[in-house]
Amino acid sequence: MDAAASTLSTDAAASALANAKRKAFWRLLPLCFICYVVAYVDRTNISIAKLTMKQSLPWLTSDVYGFAGGAFFWGYFLLEIPGSILVERWSARKWISRIMITWGIIAASTAFVKTPTQFTAVRFLLGLGEAGFFPGIIIYLTHWFPSRDRARALSVFLIATPAAQILGPKLTGAIVASGTTTLVGLTLKGWQWVFIVWGLPATVLGVVVFFALTDRPRQASWLTPEERDALEDELARERAATAAKHRMTLAEAFRNPKVLLLVLAYFFVVAGNYGVIEFFLPSILDSWYHLKISSITTYMMFGPALALASQLFVGWSSDRTRERRMHTVIPVFIGGIAFVGLAFSRGNLALTIACVAVAAAGTKAYQPAFWALPSMFLTSTAAAGSIGFINSFGNLGGGGLATPVMGYLEKSTGSYVVGILIMAASMFIAAAIVFFLGLGKKSRAGIS
Question: Cβ–Cβ contacts within 10 Å for residue 291, how many?
Fold first, then answer.
């Protein structure tokens, strides 16, 4: 009888845990996804707006644009680690709400820049406003999803970036092409409306986040007591097991060779992403093929579509096989090869777009597996701070340096080819670092 009762109790707990995870998946991830779509469009819509901003702002040359694009990541860098720790120790709901509200206001103010200094300043403030959002969500998901389900949950959140890249350029291009329009007493050019139209939803979503997100399972009124207990118990067991093997302070985590190597790997792969795909792709297509904005925004949709499918596959496959390393390495390496192909594809539009699509997939597909790596050997504040550390330094180096480097090389050489090849090399370096780091290999016990 006792054995039967024990089996019944185990089955009930397993059922409650499954129900809790399913409810969390559908309750939390859609809102996180929508917020990231809007945030990502606000960050990158400058690449489309730039195509006509140059007519109003003749000082907006490639080097000025690249420098201002890099300034975003300097602002991002300053608050990234403190923001990540606040999510762990204080409240993800309140911090993310603050980010979205201020982010939207600053993004909208880009419409009114008149000098290079103002443009650089507003991009810096935009980075400062968004700092902590991405690692904050990564940390937040560790509060809700056990490690066996984490890559899949991450993949659903992370496909917001390719979704934004699919929806954003076409919508942004339509606003840019609308020309000068008067609305609610404001007469502005199309590129100015881009920043206002995309900034407003971010601010509104910040208010929604404050009331809709729940920080921890124990605070979720939409879970039954049994579901709350089952999920909290599962997460507590995981944290205890990880802490028993890898207990370290925040300062120790920042000095840990694995953390430092993950920073370097992320640095180099982000360089390829921002150096080419995010900030210079519209300019490359315009320079090489003299296309209309509507054609550029259409061609820009192919890469994100492939990236979206690739991210979902990597998240599913990585969780199914319990392997993280090669699920990170292979997409990044393939992305590097595609950048090499892109550099020599000028004159063949179909080949250029194919290379762009594969490169875009490579710079995105690795993420669900990569971001599951830190929580394999870190817990609590050490994990939160390290995720912010990896993201902030990676973005500072990748975006903060790669973007101005691309702008400088284009102006000094009159070509994007050298810059693209440098970004290809950075992808190969990133793949090599993760491969030789060895973290996340499949083992009989799961992942080592």
Answer: 16
List, in sequence order, every residue forming a beta bridge with 183; answer none if it has no partner. Answer: 186
List the structure tokens of 156: 């659903």
Any alpha helices (H) in 143-189, and if so which ranges? Answer: 147-158, 160-177
Backbone angles phi, psi at 186, to 5 degrees: -100, 130
Helix, strand or coil, per DSSP, at residue 414? coil
Tokens of 208: 């929604």
Q: What is the dihedral of CA 354, 356, 357, 359, to 10 degrees?
A: 120
Enumerate the H helices of 183-280 as residue ranges.
190-212, 225-245, 250-255, 257-272
Q: Using CA atoms, how far apart are residues 359 and 339, in angstroms rounded to an integer? A: 6
Residue with structure tokens 């999920």? 231
Cα-flanking dihedrals φ and ψ of residue 317, to 5°? Answer: -65, -40
Q: CA-CA distance, 105 to 108, in Å (whole number)?
A: 5
Q: Is the entire prediction scored with pTM above 0.85?
A: no
Task: State the virtual CA torsion across 305, 76, 137, 249 in degrees, nearest 10.
Answer: 130
CB 311 within 8 A of CB 368: yes
CA 322 – CA 115 distance, rounded (Å): 51
Give the max Cα distance, the chain.
Answer: 83
Q: Is the pLDDT assigned to residue 4 strictly greater than 60?
A: no
pLDDT tens for each residue of 290-328: 998 889 888 988 988 898 899 889 988 988 888 999 999
Higher pLDDT, 441 or 357: 357
Q: Picking from 112-116, 312-316, 326-330, 382-386, which range would have the lowest pLDDT averaged per residue?
A: 382-386
Q: Is residue 419 within 8 Å of residue 324, measured between CB atoms?
A: no
Specify the amino acid at residue 220. Answer: A
Crossing angle of helices 160-177 and 2-44, in 10° steps, is 30
**Helix, strand, coil percentages, rounded to 5, for the chain:** 80, 0, 15
Coil vs helix vs strand at 188: strand
What's the token pair of residue 48?
Answer: 């489309």
Region of 414 (left: φ > 0; alpha: ψ -120 to 50; beta: rest) is: left
Structure tokens at 415: 């070509």
